[in-house]
Amino acid sequence: MVDGWFAVTLTVILVAVDVVARVFALIFVPKNRRPQTALAWLLAIWFLPYIGVILFLILGRARLPRARRRKQREVNQYILDTTEGFDRVKLDPPWPPWLEPIVELNRTLGAMPLVGGNSAHMWNDNTESLAQMTAAIRAAKKTVHCEFYILLLDDATADFFDALAHAQARGVKVRVLFDHLGSAQYPGYRRTKRRLDKAGIAWHVMLPFRPWRGQIQRPDLRNHRKLLVIDGEVAFTGSQNVVETGYQRRKNHRRGLHWKDYMARFEGPVVAGIDALFVTDWYSETGELLEREAAPARATGDGDYDCQVVPSGPGFEGENNLRLFNSLVYAAQKKVILTSPYFVPDDSMLYAITTAAQSGLQVELFVSEIGDQFLVFHAQRSYYEALLRAGVKIYLYAGPTILHAKHMTIDDEISVIGSSNMDMRSFSLDLEISVMVRGQQFLDELRAIEDANRAMSRELTLEEWLARPVWIRTLDNLARLTAAVQ
Predict the structure, then answer these.
(1) In Å, how far are 278, 355, 429 from 425, measured between CA atoms?
(2) Does 120 fall in a domain?
(3) Which span out of 272-276, 338-342, 422-426 was modeled with the highest average pLDDT?
(4) Helices first, then strands: H and E counts in the chain
(5) What are phi and psi of 380, to 5 degrees?
(6) Would you tell me how many other CB atoms lie within 10 Å of the CB of residue 434?
(7) Is 225 strand, coil or helix?
(8) Which of 109, 229, 378, 403 could form a disulfide with 275, with the two C-beta atoms 3.0–4.6 Å apart?
C-alpha cells in the first residue's frame, strides 16, 4: 500500500511539474525574443519538458552577468572622455549623405565616435600578418595589450610568444587576454599558460566557465575579439587567431585544411578606440581600470582615413554589429560585397541583402566551399536558394582552404573589417570588434583582395543548387533549425 501511495504521489508531482513548466514557459520564454527563437524554445520545452527546461535555464539568456554589464556602462563614459580625433574627420565632399546617421547609430550603441587622421594597411596572409605583429611587439617601448579568442603556443607562433617574453624582460608592461573555452578546447592550452607564467607576463582568461570556483554563466557566451595594441600607438585587428593555420587538430591536418585570415594595422586616434576594448575586457576580468596609455604626440594622427570602432556582444543592449551591417546594406547605392566564413543571418539581415539584390545592386557573398563546423555549415547552405533567387552572386572559395576572413565593402565608400561573423552567434552571443573605415586606398586594398578571392572561387548557380540531392537539402534545412535556439 505504501509503495502504491508513493507511486501515485510521485506521478502527481511529476505531472504538476510538467504542467507548471509548460505554463511558465508560455509566460517567460517569448519575452524580448525573436518569434522564431521563442517558438524553438517552446517546442523544446513542450516535447522534452525536463530536458528543455534545464537547457533553457543554462542557455536561454544571451546576457552577461549583471556585474559585467555594469562595468561596461562604467567604461563607456571613460571611452568618450579619453577619445581624441573628432576634429580630424573629413566632412568635405564627397561625404555620402547616408553615412552620418550610421555614424550616430554606432556611437549611440557602442559609445565609440568616428575619428579622423588614421592610417591603415591590410594583410591577407596568416604568416605575414603574424610576422608583422611579432615585429611590432619587438619594437614596443611601454605597453603590449594582446587579446585573442584563441592564443596558443606552437611551432608557428613560437616567435610571437618569444617577442612577448622579450618585451616583458626589457621592462615593457605586457598584458594578455584569451578566451577560456575558446583556447582550452585545443591542444597546447596548458603549454601556453606555462610559457606566459615563465615569462612573468600578466594574463587572464576571458569569460571563464569554472563552476568549481563559482564562475558560472552561460557557457557559450564567448569573447571572440582579436586585437593587439602596441604602446597605444599601433593596433592590429581582424579575423586571425594566434595559432597555426590548421588549429593544431590532427583531423584538420589529415584533410589538409588550413585557415585564411585578414588582419589590418591601424595608426592614429582609432588606436585609442581599439585599446579601449582591451581596457574594457581587462577591467571586466580583473577589476583593474587601466589608464589610457596612448602617446599624445601620435593621438592626432596624420593619415587620411576616418575610422569608427564598433564593439558588440551581450554586454550591450542592442546587437550593434547586426545593426551596423543592416544599415550599411540598406544605404548602399551600387555595390555590396560580403565575406564571412559562417553566414547564418537572421531575418532582418536576409531581407536587407535580398532587398539590395532585388533593387538592382551588385551583391556578392564569399563563403568557403567546405566547412569545419557541421551544423553551421549546413545551416548556412539553407539560405543559398533565397539568396540566389534574389540575384545575389555566391562565390565558393576553393578547399582545402577555410576562408575565415570577415569583412564587407559598400559602394566605393566604406569598408568594415573585424572579428564578427555574419551569423546569429556573432550577433547575440559573442563579444566582437568591427572597424568601419572611410578611405579610398584601404577600400582599394580590400577590392584587390576580393578580386583575388574571386579568382580562387567558383560561382554557385541556382540550377546547380536546385539539383543537389533531396537528403542533402533536408539536412541543410534541419540544421537551420538549430540556429534559432539561442
Answers:
(1) 21, 23, 5
(2) yes
(3) 338-342
(4) 20, 20
(5) -60, -45
(6) 26
(7) coil
(8) 229
Show the domain range for 471. Answer: 320-482
- Listed residues 43, 59, 75: the one ending a domain: 59
Residue with cell 589538409: 256
Look at the block and give the residue holding cell 537547457. 55
DSSP state letter for 87:
G
Question: Residue 374 carries which side chain, given as an amino acid letter?
Answer: F
85 and 6, same structural domain? no
pTM for the whole thing? 0.88
CATH number for position 432: 3.30.870.10
Q: Do 471 and 338 belong to one domain?
A: yes
* Angle separating helix axes 374-381 and 470-482, nearest 10 degrees: 110
Residue with cell 592590429: 236
Q: CB neighbours of 313 closer than 8 A, spacing ≥ 6?
A: 64, 223, 320, 429, 430, 431, 432
Number of domains in the chain: 3
Question: Is pLDDT above 60 for 294?
Answer: no
- Amino acid letter, residue 130: L
C-alpha cell at 319: 546587437
Q: Coil, strand, or helix at residue 258?
A: strand
